[in-house]
Every structure is written in structure tokens, then in C-alpha cells.
Design brief:
disordered C terminus, 15 strands, four-stranded mixed beta sheet, Helix Hairpins, three-stranded mixed beta sheet, alpha+beta, 370 residues, HSP40/DNAj peptide-binding domain
Length: 370
């Protein structure tokens, strides 16, 4: 029996949310659209099957009781025992002489799987929104048989083993008397019908893989790692069943100037020592265009100027974040003779030739003490 908990990497007492989170994490790593490695694709199928079982309370109960709901052997399809009983109802029928409860044939069309695609966007696209055209390979309904899985002019025929019920019953003698057990029909796999002439395009699956394009709208204010859900744009299910959803995960490219923290933007502006002392006006390129940044005289190193509402728009609210400009005041490391003389003259005029020597507490060290 498959270790479904081990496949997802969760404990046996894991909650539904923990199981869902574990599946989503693995699906992001292993999905064929993201990881084309054949070995990883097989692992992705195992992870999907494990999630299908553990997310269904009835199937999970079967696993906890020691059974395998995905096994095709006797006692499968929701049977926690290996001796042919078909669940609690069949056990009660066996003890009290019932004839077993028929569940009927299952549908050939089943729900398709979700798909995941990563989309790289620039900061301007995540900030103000954009429309992007995506190309992806997914399972789509077979155009030849329109999902039926049969060749042109043919139809599925009723299974002669179960006579369309999808189940077969067997009577056995035991110390309790006659016991009737019910199991999935081994010939039609519970479908109640058989495709004798499968479609040559899809080989009876009702779906084929195809490349298609679609347009996705990136909302303004979306952040790196967020996902956009496109309902019904995922994988079409077996038998032409309804498609799953497509999740588009946003990957925000790094910007050469700005770094993002939530809806706020940060950048660093290098400023000469003289400009910081005298004040100046510098051009600054923002997401909204070029602006003039006023530097006040006497600006200190590591000062931060905040431009309100120049950041990223809020995703689910009005307004925008701020732009924080960090000033990096640069002190010259090499001076020629003329520059050094001018700086010494300035130091004499300001009384800073020997900073910190004054015993009155007005020098550099005195200010640090205060």
C-alpha cells in the first residue's frame, strides 16, 4: 500500500490545512510546466494522487484503517479491509444477511487537475497592473471525439461482466452463513461500459495535450509570490471532464534602482559632501516620471527623504505607499594640494582644526559625551 502521508511529508494526524499546504508546496516544485524532468513528473503524479486521497474524508479513513482506496484489487474503492468487504455498509449486510449496497457505475468524466505557471513581471507591471499573453501546454478536450473517447461512429458498450452496474457481487460461505461481497468490476474498472473502439487521437482518454495562449490581467499592487487564479483554465479531466484552475504565480524582477518592502519603495542617492553642506536640487526618476529632489543645506549622512504616495498602489485599497530616498554623503578620499588648502582654510574659519580638544565641551568629543 502506498504511504500517502509520506509522499506529502505530513504526519498521520495532520489537519486538512496542513495537507493542503504540503500539496501546494510540492506542486509548485514538481508541476510539469515548471519541472520537465520525467522523474519529477512521476513524483508529481504520486503527490497528486496522495492529495486526492487524503483530502477526501472517506478515502482518508480507508487509509487510516489500513486500506488503499486507489488499489484495483479486492476490497478497493473505499474498502478498509482486504477480504472483499465493500465498506461499513457491506460489513453490516454481511452480519445481518443483507445483499450489499450498490453504488452504481462511476462517471467516465472526472475533474481535471489544477495547473501552475510562473510569470515574471517588472516592478512597473506589478505596481500599475498589466495584461500579459501566456503560452502554456495543458490537457484539452479531444477535438476528434469531443471527450467521449470513442472512434467516430461508435459508442461505449455495456460491460457484460457487471451488466452496467460497475460492480460485481460474490456469495461466499462462512461461519456466519452466506456472505455477499461487492467489489469494483475488474473489466470496466467501475465505469459500467467499455470502449471497444477508442479514438485514434486521444486513445480513449477524451483529452489531448495542446499548446494554447490566453491573456491574464495582472492587478495593480500585486506582490512577488502572489497567485492569480484563472477558473477553468487548468487541465481538462479524463473523459473530457471539467477543467481545473490555472494559478499564475507572480515573480517580480529586481529593479536596478528601487527595492520594495510591501507597498513602500526604497532607493539610495549618493551625494557629495559639498552638496550636502550647501544644499542642492537633484533630478530623481520615480515610477511616475522624473522629479526634482530638494536637498536642504546641512543635510547629514544617512538622512532619509520621504516622498509621499510615490510608492506602489495598495492592492485592495485606495492610496499608495511611499518612496524613501536614503542619502549617502560621500567624503572625498583623495585631495589635490589646492583642495586640501581650501579645506584647511574652511577648518580654520570654523574653528575645527583640532576637533574635540576643547575642555569646555564644545568640541567633537564634548558633543559625543553630551
Amino acid at each position: 500500500m502506498a504511504d500517502y502521508y509520506g509522499v506529502l511529508g505530513v504526519a498521520q494526524d495532520a489537519s486538512d490545512d496542513e495537507i493542503k499546504k504540503a500539496y501546494r508546496k510540492l506542486a509548485r516544485q514538481l508541476h510539469p510546466d515548471v519541472n520537465p524532468d520525467p522523474a519529477e513528473q512521476e513524483r508529481f503524479k504520486a503527490v497528486t494522487a496522495a492529495y486526492e486521497v487524503l483530502s477526501d474524508p472517506q478515502k482518508r479513513q480507508v487509509v487510516d484503517l489500513g486500506g488503499d482506496p486507489l488499489s484495483n484489487g479486492p476490497g478497493s474503492q473505499g474498502n478498509p479491509f482486504s477480504q472483499g468487504f465493500g465498506g461499513l455498509g457491506d460489513i453490516m449486510d454481511a452480519f445481518f444477511g443483507g445483499g450489499g449496497t450498490s453504488r452504481g457505475p462511476r462517471s467516465r468524466a472526472r475533474q481535471g487537475a489544477d495547473a501552475l505557471l510562473r510569470l515574471e513581471c517588472d516592478l512597473s507591471e506589478t505596481a500599475f497592473g498589466a495584461e500579459r499573453e501566456l503560452t502554456l501546454d495543458t490537457a484539452v478536450v479531444c477535438g476528434t471525439c469531443t471527450g467521449a473517447g470513442t472512434a467516430t461512429g461508435t459508442h461505449p458498450v455495456t460491460c457484460d461482466t457487471c451488466r452496467g452496474r460497475g460492480e460485481v457481487q460474490q456469495v461466499q460461505r462462512s461461519f456466519l452463513g452466506q456472505v455477499m461481497t461487492t467489489r469494483v468490476c475488474p473489466r470496466c474498472a467501475g465505469l459500467g461500459s467499455i470502449i471497444e473502439h477508442p479514438c485514434g487521437e486521444c486513445s480513449g482518454d477524451g483529452r489531448v495535450r495542446a499548446r494554447r495562449t490566453l491573456t491574464v490581467k495582472v492587478p495593480a499592487g500585486v506582490e512577488d509570490g502572489m497567485r492569480i487564479r484563472l477558473t477553468g483554465e487548468g487541465e481538462v479531466g479524463p473523459g473530457g471532464g471539467p477543467a481545473g484552475d490555472l494559478y499564475v504565480e507572480i515573480v517580480e524582477r529586481s529593479h536596478p534602482v528601487f527595492t520594495r518592502e510591501g507597498d513602500d519603495l526604497h532607493c539610495t542617492l549618493s551625494l557629495p559632501m559639498t552638496a550636502a553642506a550647501l544644499g542642492t536640487c537633484l533630478p530623481l526618476s520615480t515610477l511616475d516620471g522624473d522629479e526634482e529632489l530638494d536637498i536642504a543645506p546641512g543635510t547629514q549622512p544617512d538622512a532619509v527623504l520621504t516622498l509621499r504616495a510615490r510608492g506602489v498602489p495598495h492592492l485592495r485599497a485606495t492610496g499608495r505607499g511611499d518612496l524613501h530616498v536614503h542619502l549617502d554623503v560621500q567624503v572625498p578620499t583623495k585631495l589635490d594640494a589646492k583642495q586640501e588648502e581650501l579645506l584647511r582654510d574652511l577648518a580654520r574659519l570654523r574653528g575645527e582644526e583640532r576637533p574635540g580638544v576643547s575642555g569646555k565641551g564644545h568640541g567633537l568629543f564634548g558633543r559625543l559625551r553630551r
